[in-house]
Amino acid sequence: MTPLTRTAWTMSIELRNRLFEQLDQLVLIDPHTHINALDPSSHTLADILGYHYYTELSHSAGMPKEQIEEEGISEKEKVGRLIENFGPITNTIQYSWFIEMAQRLLDFDGDSVDASNWEALYDSAAEKMAADDWTETVFQKSGLEAVFLTNDFDDPLEDFDTSKYIPCLRTDDLVFHLTNPRTAVRLQEATDVNVTNVTSAREAIRKLFDHFTSKGAKACAISLPPTFAPVQVSDARAETALSNVLSKGTDADEADQRAVSNFIFWTLAENCRAYHLPFDLMIGVNRKVFPAGVFQGQDLYDSRVSLIQYKDLFNAFPDVTFPVSVLASVTNQELVSYSWIFPNVVANGHWWYSNTPTFIQHDCAARLEAVPRTKQIGYYSDMYKMEFALPKFAMYKRILAKVLAENFVIDRKWTEEAAVQLGTELLRGNVETIFHVGK
Question: Is the pLDDT of residue 2 over 70?
Fold first, then answer.
């Protein structure tokens, strides 16, 4: 490297660091998590390392599933087994999350956790996590004001602060699992409506939206398989299909099951319009591709998915905002194009298998080059325990700072202030305006 090149490189690093430091001062609202508002943070390292990323990576690298999921194993023993088998995964970004989490939240003094030091970290973490104010400490150190939840449709939404833990109506069971008699029972218990036909189904769904919005819900959400292509079905067709599905369950004709899914999904979109809720679409997951995998480590994406399957929906509901997440980076260009053309389509976060730095940088840069700045939600954690917010958002902010530094300040001669303003919109401002929170 020549002296001039070395100087330019140093200046670029310093610029990225300055941008990151400013973005890292922001107080954020996380627009998609799986946090349990009644038990939001970890109690031991087992809650952290039990996250599917660690168990599936360890299993993939050769650790037997039986060692990971042995019945009756203590939490400490499970942590020890995982850490002592972490050698093959120390290159992964998920391992980096764990180290940064340990350093910044648990005061760990080291760059690696292994057989020589994990027990001391485990005991120290358990002591810190037992403090009454641990959850609040995590909120503060993570720079978080509030988090969105992912609530089952029959969640009573009680005994927690809904301004800090913001409800979101998750609807997968309604759309895809009415063949399960238990789903219909849960729906009746939640709404006091016995769903037997199209009219009662609409009434039950309306009552769910009444309940959720009365408790401060700010979004409806669903995870969708790559085969799903929503279309409107007539009431007559829905009536016949619903009758067969409710009476025959999983033995109902596949065409009837598909018609019911479409009817329920379309009714949800109609209610999102009526109640002014964004409808989060998380598109592309195939469930149980690897049934021998560890818990939550069985699902994969399918590159055959296309957003063309959603054209009828996007055209039919121009006044509903659809924050769209795609499971794979290979679908990002299509999402960029739809967000470019459709006013009601928003590019949302970097989900699951796209949630690694190489893919994030590529996808983030593409969105910033082509999609209106007001139509991008930069990131969400997708976390199950609060401790993951800090390292995940830190990862994203570093990548965002790099893209802003290189593609905007250096290449396009933007000021640093303008770059930070753009980054602030992605991280905070657009969450406020799209979901109507935090102002």
Answer: no
Please say whether the beta carbons of 49 and 98 come within 8 A. Answer: yes
Cβ atoms within 10 Å of 288's Cβ, excluding its own: 10
Q: Report the alpha-carbon distance of residue 289 to residue 159 in Å, rounded.
A: 37
Q: If you average pLDDT over residues 147-170, what whole number do you get? A: 98
What CA–CA distance (Å, rounded) separates 314 from 299?
Answer: 27
Half-sphere exposure of 100 (CA within 13 A, CB side): 17
**Enclosing H/E stretch for 68:** helix 65-68
> Going by C-beta distance under 8 Å and a sequence separation of 6 or more, which residues neighbour residue 69?
55, 294, 295
CB atoms within 10 A of CB 92: 16
Q: Are 336 and 371 in contact (CB under 8 A)?
A: yes
- Rounded CA separation 402/377 (Å): 17
Give yes or no for a contact between 292 and 60, defined as CB atoms under 8 angstroms apart: no
Asked if pLDDT for residue 92 goes beyond 60, the answer is yes
% of the chain surpassing 70 pLDDT:
99
- CA–CA–CA angle 49, 20, 125 (5° rounding): 25
Give the chain's radius of gyration (CA, Å): 23
The gap between the terminal CA atoms of the chain, to the nearest Å, is: 48
Average of per-residue pLDDT across 388-412: 97
- Asked if 151 and 170 touch (Cβ cutoff 8 Å), the reply is yes
pLDDT per residue as tens digits for the range 56-89: 999 999 999 999 999 999 999 999 999 999 999 9
CB of 104 closer than 8 Å to CB of 395: no
Structure tokens at 89: 């995964």
DSSP-based three-state secondary structure for 89: helix
Rounded Cα distance between 176 and 155, Å, is 18
Instruction: Measure the CA–CA gap between 224 and 228, rounded to whole angstroms.
Output: 7
Q: What is the pLDDT of residue 3?
A: 59
d(CA 335, CA 341): 10
What integer pLDDT is reported at residue 1 of this predicted model? Answer: 59
Q: Choose among 271, 260, 157: nearest CA to 205.
A: 271
> % helix / strand / coil in the chain, to the nearest 5?
55, 10, 35
The three-point CA angle 305-311-313 to 5° equals: 110
**Element containing residue 81 per DSSP (H, E):** helix 75-84
